[in-house]
Design goal:
126 residues; mainly beta; seven-stranded mixed sheet; four-stranded antiparallel sheet; 11 strands
Amino acid sequence: QVQLVESGGGLVQAGGSLRLSCAASGRTSSAYAMGWFRQAPGKEREFVAAISWSGGSIYYADSVKGRFTISRDNAKNRVHLQMNSLKPEDTAVYYCAAPAAGDPGDYYSDYVYDYWGQGTQVTVSS
């Protein structure tokens, strides 16, 4: 069973930065994609960013391009999300996710991800 644990959330003023981390355990290999999603109150869960197992392919939602950076450290089974220039509309619970297969094909859709963390709250004040 794969476990994903997010950390790094918190309260920050608009324009500030946060770095989220996701620690993965329960697999013998790190050869699988990882994704970040978020869900704001009253809204559907939405894609934020994803990275292939090698780090060679990276995907971002248009709303975070140029502000967020996803990266991974396969030696430590961790994926990070550096969030800069945060806006109040970035306020949400952020989840990391992983597919059962190494390459999910469609990185943007939440239904291709089989394992989810418990989420970490990010609140951006104006």
